[in-house]
Write a structure and sequence with these properties.
The protein is mostly beta strands. The protein is globular.
Length: about 120
Amino acid sequence: QVQLVESGGGLVQAGGSLRLSCAASGLTFSSYAMGWFRQAPGKEREFVTGINWSGGNTNYADSVKGRFSISRDNAKKKVYLQMNSLTPEDTAVYYCAASKWGGSYNSEYDYWGQGTQVTVSS
């Protein structure tokens, strides 16, 4: 079965950086667009960034543009999220997700990981 497993979350001070990883199995990884979403307490899950199957096309939520960077390694079946200049507003559970077609809506993604907590202290 398809599994997406996130790692790399944790506690960091404001202004710091974290790198999240997502390891995929059970799917033809290079055929899927990948995305990162996040959900803060009391809020809906929101799109953070996405990358197409080849890595040649990316898009970002306005709130993270210039601070976050998504990348993928199809040989390793992994997608990464580099997060810089973190603020307390970035505190959330971060999820990776796989989509046949890509997009920025939850409903466009077929498979989801279990999430990893990112907490940014002020």
